[in-house]
């Protein structure tokens, strides 16, 4: 069976990344008899300068996009409906905050070595968008990491060692240099780029077309 690798550049506080991932998962499920698809997650911090404890989400969005509170609320309603269509419960309210995600990304990169990135990413998305947990909090992050089978003591080291923060920063720089400026960005077999929360239908069509092409794997 043809194997396809998809690198996903994303942030866990990006609703479009969550929706895009859910749509991709539906496409993968519908193609499971035709293709084997492996996902690898890479960091892209939307808010690297936010201080510990976060910032009220609505306030952040108004400032970041130079728009009105009403426009932000309407966008959140739209996102909520799109999420509902793919089984995501977005639960936006005025108490929700935007958080720094550097430490979350440190654990996600560590999880790659242990083949549990996907389980951790799903917990992070759900924790932030549905449960409103502060995902810059080390105890929250460690709890999720141990739930997916990672060793707590090793994860504590990953969170505290500056070198792991540097790993995330270096990966982000590499993607920026490669031209990735918006997320989600999904790179198929290191050759084909799909930006944004593409529909399930687009994914199925693209993956079938790519699977039909001769595959030349690149050396890492």
UniProtKB/TrEMBL annotation:
Signal peptide: none annotated. Gene3D superfamilies: Glutaredoxin. CDD domains: DsbA_FrnE. It comes from the Bacteria. Pfam families: DSBA. InterPro entries: DSBA-like_thioredoxin_dom (IPR001853), Thioredoxin-like_sf (IPR036249). SUPFAM superfamilies: Thioredoxin-like (SSF52833). Residues 6-207 form the DSBA-like thioredoxin domain. This is DsbA family oxidoreductase. It comes from Vibrio porteresiae DSM 19223.
């Amino acid at each position: 069976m043809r194997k396809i690798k998809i690198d996903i550049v994303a942030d866990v506080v990006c609703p479009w990344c969550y929706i895009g991932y859910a749509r991709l998962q539906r496409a993968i499920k519908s193609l499971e008899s035709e293709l084997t698809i492996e996902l690898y997650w890479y960091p892209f911090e939307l808010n690297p300068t936010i201080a510990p404890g976060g910032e009220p989400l609505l306030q952040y969005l108004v400032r970041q996009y130079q728009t009105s509170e009403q426009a932000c609320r309407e966008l959140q309603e739209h996102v909520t409906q799109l999420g509902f269509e793919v089984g995501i419960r977005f639960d936006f309210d005025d108490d929700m905050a935007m958080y720094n995600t550097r430490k979350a990304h440190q654990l996600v990169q560590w999880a790659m070595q242990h083949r549990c990135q996907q389980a951790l990413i799903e917990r992070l998305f759900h924790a932030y968008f549905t449960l409103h947990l502060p995902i810059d909090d080390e105890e929250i992050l460690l709890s999720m990491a141990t739930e997916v089978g990672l060793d707590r003591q090793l994860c504590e080291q990953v969170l505290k060692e500056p070198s792991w923060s540097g790993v995330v920063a270096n990966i982000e720089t590499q993607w920026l240099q490669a031209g990735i400026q918006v997320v989600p960005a999904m790179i198929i077999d290191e050759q084909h780029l799909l930006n944004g929360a593409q529909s399930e239908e687009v994914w199925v069509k693209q993956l079938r077309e790519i699977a039909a092409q001769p595959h030349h794997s690149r050396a890492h």
